[in-house]
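Hi team, as promised in this morning's meeting, here are the two structures we talked about. I've kept the exact order from the run log so nobody has to guess. The first one is mostly here for context; it's the second one we should focus on when we meet again. Sequence first, then the predicted structure tokens.
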Amino acid sequence: MKLEISRVVQGCRLGTLTGLGKTGQHSLETPGCLLYTRCASVPHLTQDTLHTLTNLPAVTQVTLATLAEHQEVLEEFKEGARAFAGLHDTVVYCSLHDPAAPSPPGYTTNKTVSVWGSGGRAELTVARFMALQAAVRPDWYQNMADGETGQENTSRKRVRKAVDRTLSHLDECLLLHQKMPELRGAQVWGVVEGGDVMEERVRSARETAKRPVAGFVLDGFQSGAMGDDLRTQLLTATTAELPHDKPRLVQGVGRPDEVIACVEAGVDLFESFFPYQVTERGCALCFSFSMETDPEQAVLDSDKEKTIPQDVVQENGSDGGGDAPGKMTCFEMDLRDKRYREDFRPLVCGCPCYCCRHHQRAYVHHLLVTNELLAGVLLMLHNTAHYLGFFRALRRALGQNRLPDLKQQLLHATRDTSPVMAISQGTSTGDPGPTRHCTFLNMHILCHVICI
């Protein structure tokens, strides 16, 4: 595996990971995301349905949290999770925890960590952790780590202990890795811990960089774990201690605005659990990432200072936080709301996904309120396509030196929550050009609201 950096723009690294997988035939553009799975399957989607989407990530993430209870089955199968789940043409990365399922704290000891799956808690020693990796047979995997430093009032002593444990686990994993023929050709990624303590973050990064690891997993920066400014400071200090020619993956960050902040701090890779969380809330991603100038949109933007009555129902989530898994963010619309009962527009105007090309908001609303399984399928298709399109736009913005334009679009998403603004920003393709055919409707609505 080799990271080829083509451009660095104010700390943002644009490049390509080449030589991925045991055959070296795959590549992944950075900044980019991995394909999120639960128990080695994308939630709600079959393999055939998933591959109706184009430009899927070359790397698929599986988690020990969801696979630990199937250890005996995988060991008897003897061909790994990729063949067992039908993930044939992809690189497999195995992480410890499921980023979409918070793990209860208080179950970590000097020698063990715990993961939580559908069957409850599984306690892992380094020996069992490595046995699981041998059964899964990933191309990449992170070392076992003590990541319980995100709670409030975590002492510096506890953070220091977490760093020491993680480094000790890494050394043990590297030693056992050499002795396991099942892991021949696989690569270990070192986990950087340190909580919100700058000194421990720097120490963890420096010590992990001394080990023969293929890349770095930055843990403890999940949404809600700390303030945005502190996260940026810690990430910037941490990445400064890491080699420039090795990739950095941050865990637990999915919101588009937080993704951009992490990219500016030097992060290369992300997990794509955010579309799944949005789908589980019965919501659809609807934020705009088009950087093209639309003259009709400029007319709408010029009227922002005019007051829109408070009784105008909001389309996007009004809270920019969205830290909790079940908390709606400003980047999505809640299709369970009854106002979509007779809304016959696509989820997002111009979106090329199957859902937006063939169905309307009213139909998805009907599926949600009647608890039809098809609702999750359609929403997951749309949300995954929209999220992958955002990363393509992010790379394009870096290549064209237009990251401020993309950030401005996301700023609109966090401030403009009326149906007028949400509709007018409703393009979600990976292509730069915005869709025009919804804009005239937007201007009509705006004029009507202003007249009222």
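And here is the second protein, the one for discussion:
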Amino acid sequence: MVESLASTSFIGHRPLYAGAVVKEGYSKRRSVSIVGFHKEKCLGGRIAMSPPLLRLGVDRSKTSAIHALAMELAHETYSFKDDRIPQKWNYPAEKGADQSGVDQRPGVWPPENKADMPSLHNPLLRQERMGSGWLVAIFEWEGVLIEDNPDLEKQAWLALSEEEGKSPPPAFVLRRIDGMKNEQAISEVLCWSRDPAQMRRMAARKEDIYQALQGGIYRLRAGSREFVNVLMHYKIPMALVSTRPRKTLEAAVGNIGIQEYFNVMIAAEDVQRGKPDPEMFVYAAQLLKFIPERCIVFGNSNQTVEAAHDARMKCVAVASKHPVYELAAADLVVRRLDELSVVDLKNLAAVESTEFGAEPELELEEEEDDPSPSTRTAFDDDFCFVAVPGAAMALISQTGLSYCIRTEVFSRAGNVEASKLKDNCVGFSSFSCNSAGKTQIFYMDNAGVGLKRRGSVVVAASPPTEDAVIATEPLTKEDLVAYLASGCKPKEAWRIGTEHEKFGFELKTLCPMKYEQISELLNGIAERFDWEKIMEGDYIIGLKQGKQSISLEPGGQFELSGAPLETLHQTCAEVNSHLYQVKAVTEEMGIGFLGIGFQPKWGLKDIPMMPKGRYQIMKNYMPKVGTLGLDMMFRTCTVQVNLDFSSEADMIRKFRAGLALQPIATALFANSPFTEGKPNGFLSMRSQIWTDTDNNRTGMLPFVFDDSFGFEQYVDYALDVPMYFVYRNKKYIDCTGMTFRDFLKGKLRCIPGELPTLNDWENHLTTIFPEVRLKRYLEMRGADGGPWRRLCALPAFWVGILYDEVSLQNVLDITADWTPEERQMLRNKVPITGLKTPFRDGLLKHVAQDVVKLAKDGLERRGYKESGFLNEVAEVVRTGVTPAERLLELYNGKWEQQIDPVFEELLY
């Protein structure tokens, strides 16, 4: 057994189990894995269960699996779990437990199987049990053990449809039936027949066509034979599962010469349903007499991952048919089986338990009891938080910058005197600022933004942040400048943060999601995947998990704000993990998500408003400052990337490159040509909307190109951008029309005499919307939302340029002589003409080709093999045809000027 288990994919997928802290004896702590299991099997002691399961009071094994879209297409309402999947995993004990073969010690966890059998008195036999024979490997056939051409399966279905006089199934339907039994696909998804005889006939004919195309030639994938030889050596039982007929499967296995490897073979005749139903995996475990927690499934698709996890088995995904980043939901992802070792499999199949020990106390958020005063610290990327018991928390900047905040003292009114707080503060000279050698310290009351969590201190999410502290002296402009400068990081600490929005809609009606449906979705994700809920009053308005968050835009646009990650592979794994979790819940609800930059069908009156106080303030204010502000709020979606800088000079160079190239990014990702069912005359309506939303807070910021530009000049700009709100006592206070400069002087009419905190400043910065936005990092904001295959292309484009010194300098050289008028001209015309916008002696397309080449070169120099993520934009610049223009071609051609097909074309 391992002390703690966090089975993750090689590309940074979320842990399979949530960690918890267990206290033993004198506040001694250790980590355990939190797993789901059957309560009736736990007579020997109380077991730590997953919080979502505790809240719901349900048995994880009885939680229904994700309904396949096949059921929706066939209008089926029944669950696809049948009585072949047992509700109790009551495997017989192995002979030798006693004379009757009956387990004499039921209720001990883990359930007795080949892992160990304490009733055995022969120590040699028991030692053998504790070797490797206590786990099972369940292999899929094609694409895992042997080479596979997935196009042959599609060709077979298309040929059968032609023979039967049926409409050829579209690509998305072919993707849905991948891994299903032929009869299941024919009756439930394709809806060609419900007659059993006809289903069997067509299923057999389809298999004949496939075998004719395949030619009976089978070849083991590289590394497969070596891997199964290792498993044979360690006496690990193996099963082979496939939805091919038994005769075909046995002939293929015999042809390869590996029939002796498998203890069990499951073929189409043995099960009623294929993937994503877990039936064939469950049946294999039953035949081998193993509990599912000891079974490891090897597959090559997300349908396999889903089925394995529904059966409570682990899953190793082989990236033979899909790229690695698309398989992020698996517990491990490999390209070849021989990349794995037996140790890897043992770690996957190991289950942490309290088999014979004392009953543990589950402690999720409890601090150690210590009567003596102490000081605790917790670190994030930018600040050190020092907790002083009974008094305050100090925030100390770790970044050495050219700016330094003078020592400020904060306290809650009537709580602790500032002078006493000062005495309790712990300073770190190594964190002192370069220019003045002073330590930057902020005191915060533990009752406010400081939250206890597993013995450390964390800070509440922002925005909005609670008004936990009140300044005893006014903040100064220098403090605000230093806040921005605190974002400077050394190159090795640079990260990539991706945010993307998408429109939710009902699959049957195409109507936008209502808040009640969004609430159900958020609660479902929180309970299934262990996210923390973010509430505003009685309304759930978002989720948080680590450094990721899910939030709602005003019209219900569903946004993932990703964690800061090192590589694009991790970023794409995060995106795909998010989409997997969302689809796991929404497919049961009949909800889909659309990847586009502007709502293509519905008007403002059709869009519900989310119950967030700040949005009501913005809704009232927007019509006063522009004609398209409400469209921006309720009908646009974007994808953006957030990137770091190392210094003020580095920030300036990246800011200028980002602003100059933003029109090119807008053109490459232009994807919003429709409004209320018709072409709107723009390729990026989303970009056009920002030109008449609120010119006080949007645009190309020409002052960034001034010689005097720096953090201070951006602060001057932000100080004069009109405010929207101040957040106090869990309420938004309308401060529209007033400025943060007034706030610094205590002259806000909405809260007269009150002074701002850094929380207020941080919240204010989120209400400024230029094409590139500066916070403690830079946000590239010029791209339309799009389908999942383009979500990774945008960060790839900007990372290749801004995180590579050579490419960045080349971009600055290219754009150095662009005039403010030329930059603004591109900003105005690109939403209409895209890459065909005339620029100097040619078209913007020609500049874009050079820039994309620089991005590709920059990614290659990073050394992470990330340049493939640019394939989507490489095709756009090669042809000069933007995504929006392709949609218009479909609209005027195949779609016959109907807008509804766009919901299928751009469905996540």
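Starting points for discussion:
Residues 28 and 117 are 30 Å apart (CA to CA).
The first helix runs from residue 51 to 56.
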